[in-house]
Inverse folding.
């Protein structure tokens, strides 16, 4: 797996260790600002989780990891993932998301891996009007440098299938939420700010819509796609929970018992996509995927988790988590 120390990746590593206890998960992660090895502290000493700090763009390293660890399948999650950062500095997004993915695909081809699961995003489809939902055949119209770089990696993966017969499956999911999400993303940012009585910055008019997916439901879908997806196919994954940002922010305030006066409308994100909605019929029909969480229950549990784990996000906001690798891991 790549990117196993990020939000979705760390949830997925733990999910795989529970659901497929016979597997060894080799986790290649660069530990950028978004990579937090503390997310995996409960796996310390687990011989079936092998962490390797490294860049997917480092060809020699990737080839070495593939051969030394006998990699059978790749779940590719490593990416620069935050839209606002891609607007401030797109270059890293091209380096990791495009070039890094290409190098990983090349090494996977050379190694002859049995399957390459490319974790893509619904943002490849661009923005929707007030009705309708993205299907796997919707046109690809990415808006931000982030989504353009993800579209490139998504298409590169499909091209490696088409041209080189690499066994590739692509998944495109909607906005994930859950525990261990870096507090630059909407839900954890709003919870942490609310707990500090700090303003909650809502972009534009707050009427942009996102379709929320619980990270555990996403992990379940990724394992199904890995094991049962058809090579060369794309699967949309969505939680069927469309919410306007402002509704969601108000719900969070209600859950933490803080006043709506904390909401502050701020300048809109440039090129801000108005609405995302996923049609997940294909993965439901073909792979039998059904999400287990309703959004109301999942959001309440998630907010509770942040409220109950101030040490986790305080170490993230203070930057202390960045030292974990040196103090806990390197010394072992
Ligand atoms: P994240 O930013 O929390 O984690 C990304 C991880 O990748 C980090 O651990 C980071 O250290 C690692 N990484 C970054 N550059 C690397 C490199 N060059 N080499 C090795 N590791 C590197 O991201 P996330 O939210 O967990 O998203 C995981 C994947 O899912 C991404 O590919 C993202 O595009 C996709 N996705 C996320 C969402 C979402 O809502 N979070 C939705 C759709 C798709
Ligand atoms: O402070 C904020 N205020 C605000 O109004 C932030 C951080 C966000 N927003 C809005 C922008 C979006 O409409 O909330 C919505 C969600 O924003 P993000 O959490 O930044 O997510 P988004 O831009 O939708 O992208 C996410 O989903 C698709 C992930 O970050 C991507 O990695 C994924 O591909």
């Amino acid at each position: 797996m790549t990117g196993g120390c990020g939000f979705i990746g760390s949830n997925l590593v733990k999910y795989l260790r529970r659901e497929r206890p016979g597997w060894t998960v080799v986790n290649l992660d660069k530990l950028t600002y978004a990579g937090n090895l503390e997310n995996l502290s409960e796996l310390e000493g687990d011989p079936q989780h092998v962490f390797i700090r490294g860049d997917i763009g480092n060809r020699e390293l990737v080839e070495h990891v593939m051969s030394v660890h006998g990699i059978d399948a790749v779940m590719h999650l490593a990416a620069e993932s935050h839209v606002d950062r891609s607007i401030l500095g797109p270059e890293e997004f091209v380096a990791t998301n495009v070039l890094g993915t290409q190098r990983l695909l090349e090494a996977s081809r050379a190694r002859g891996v049995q399957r390459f699961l490319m974790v893509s995003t619904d943002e490849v489809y661009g923005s929707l009007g007030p009705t309708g939902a993205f299907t796997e055949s919707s046109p690809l119209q990415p808006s931000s440098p982030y989504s353009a770089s993800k579209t490139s990696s998504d298409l590169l993966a499909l091209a490696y299938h088409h041209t080189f017969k690499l066994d590739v499956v692509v998944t495109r999911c909607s906005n994930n939420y859950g525990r261990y999400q870096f507090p630059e993303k909407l839900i954890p940012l709003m919870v942490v700010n609310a707990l500090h009585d700090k303003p909650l910055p809502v972009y534009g008019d707050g009427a942009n819509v996102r379709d929320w997916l619980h990270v555990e439901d996403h992990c379940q879908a990724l394992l199904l796609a890995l094991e049962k997806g058809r090579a060369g196919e794309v699967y949309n994954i969505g939680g069927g929970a469309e919410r306007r940002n402002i509704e969601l922010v108000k719900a969070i305030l209600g859950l933490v018992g803080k006043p709506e006066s904390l909401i502050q409308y701020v300048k809109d994100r440039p090129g801000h996509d108005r609405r995302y909605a996923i049609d997940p019929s294909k993965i439901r029909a073909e792979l039998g995927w059904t999400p287990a969480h309703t959004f109301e229950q999942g959001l309440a549990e998630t907010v509770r988790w942040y409220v109950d784990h101030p040490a986790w996000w305080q170490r993230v906001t203070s930057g202390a988590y960045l030292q974990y690798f040196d103090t806990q891991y390197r010394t072992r």
